[in-house]
Amino acid sequence: AEVPVLCIDGPTASGKGTLAVAVAYQLGYHYLDSGTLYRVAGLTMRRNGLEADAAHEARIAELARTLPLRFADGKVLLAGEDVSDAIRTEAAGMDASRVSALPAVREALLALQKSFRRLPGLMADGRDMGTVVFPDADLKVYLTASAAQRAERRHKQLISKGISTTLDSLRADLEARDLRDSSRSVAPLKPAPDARLLDNSALSVEQSVEQVIAWWQEVQ
Ligand code: C5P
Description:
Layout: E1 5-9, H1 16-27, E2 30-33, H2 34-47, H3 57-65, E3 69-72, E4 75-78, E5 81-82, H4 90-100, H5 103-108, H6 110-114, E6 122-126, H7 129-133, E7 139-144, H8 147-160, H9 167-183, E8 196-199, H10 205-219
Bound molecules: cytidine-5'-monophosphate (C5P).
Cytidine-5'-monophosphate binds next to helix 2, helix 4 and helix 9.
């Protein structure tokens, strides 16, 4: 591939974000957090009083195609409004998962995602980076961790942001989201045939970063 791309896909709260940010930093690459785009699309749907069903699909897709989105200083700006916190709640995650099951919405976000591929390279993080958006990626990693581990991590993350939840409700949410993400007909969550599997249940962030960088050097 001309502009190098590495992809990390995997289920909710598998640690993709943390890992991908660290790898992007180490390589000096651009970073695409595709989940953010679906979260913003979900928020936009909610604010427009729409439901994620076939009757509203075209309308939501149109909104998604023209999202007035900007990234500045680590913040996500929607028409100038800082929505960084609003898109991080579990409810926003659920809405993201709902809109992301609509084929027209996925199609609408494709060009925007591909536009992140610029020199010196791209670290892309999501569910279908290696299967759909960047099928010719130089390296595809499929990251997993046990459901218990993932619920615990997400719990800590939310608590540290002052958002209160219980471990049980989180785990139920994660499992519902994973089930919807992996059973949808378009771009379901699954490893690309040529993905390398990484289970980080027993790994530190540093160890996971080392593994991905080692694989990256291997494919150069
Ligand atoms: O990764 P994150 O939790 O921010 O993603 C929110 C939701 O967006 C996921 O549960 C998934 O339904 C959807 N998503 C997707 N494809 C991607 C990234 C996220 O369908 N590439």
